[in-house]
Amino acid sequence: MVDIVFETHSLSEDNERGIATGWLPGRLSAAGRRLAAELGARRRGWAEAAFTSDLARAVETAEIAFGGAGIPMHRDARLRECDYGELNGSEAAALPRLAHVETPFPGGESYRDTVARMAEFLADLRTGWDGRRVVLIGHTATRWALDHLLDGADLAAAVAAPFAWREGWRYRL
Question: What are the domain boundaries of the chain?
Fold first, then answer.
């Protein structure tokens, strides 16, 4: 069994402006950098490794939280946000999320595609990290995939639910 705590990347400048960054890099805001430091304070004594999306805002979160702490950090593209394709960088409130649970965004992927890459990631995590405690740093779609794959949540219902930030979500793999 792998004990997982999932944390979303810290607050980004795009989050503050209501932009759906998608696969664009993004960067943390001043408040996001403070929150990333708080994440590190919460998880440094617990985590044996940190796995992060390779998108800049998630990497920045991991580096602030765990840099210099002696915790191995691993970047993995499978932990990325959903690729909104032509809609990367669009207004978040106008993003037609429910229309793309099964159907890819124009030039991008669907939330079901995000689930498929997370399933591959989890299979590898189970093999290499059994009996260990890890932190995953990703995005909203990453969490929806975890809820679906590990807790049996309906994917469309997860996508439709309003986002509510909190200090991590626990999962067992």
Answer: 3-172
